[in-house]
Amino acid sequence: MDYHFTGVWEYNLTVSENTWRVICQASALKREWTRMDAVSVIADWRLRAIPMEPTRIPGTPDPAGFIGPALDGTELEVFADILPEKREISVFHMMPARPHVIQKIRKAKNKQERKQR
Q1: What does DSSP say about strands 64-69 and 47-49: parallel, antiparallel, or unpaired?
Q2: Whether the predicted pLDDT of 96 surpasses 60
Q3: β-strand 88-96 against 18-24: which pairing, if any?
Q4: Concatenated DSSP letters for 32-95?
């Protein structure tokens, strides 16, 4: 796994042979967390659901939810729009993981797993 800085607002995340551009919206950077923290959570997630819930904004994809470690080890929640046709992950929310969000992502993940059976 490689992280490549490509500009002020974006990073590339390479997992195996697949490269995705990770972009952080200003709303995700309101707190002390950085773009590289978002990349860390997405790359090293311990819990994720894609999608996490139906979108609230017409015309946008259903958001994904990730729980994972920031660079300093703090467990964060990250919400992002996954755009496969652009190979892009657009992060719009990032903050320390809250219990009700962990539960929401776990519930969505379990629901997805039940559908796959």
Answers
A1: antiparallel
A2: yes
A3: parallel
A4: S--HHHHHHHHHT-SEEESS-S--SSTTSPPPEEEEEE-TTS-EEEEEEEEEGGGTEEEEEEEE
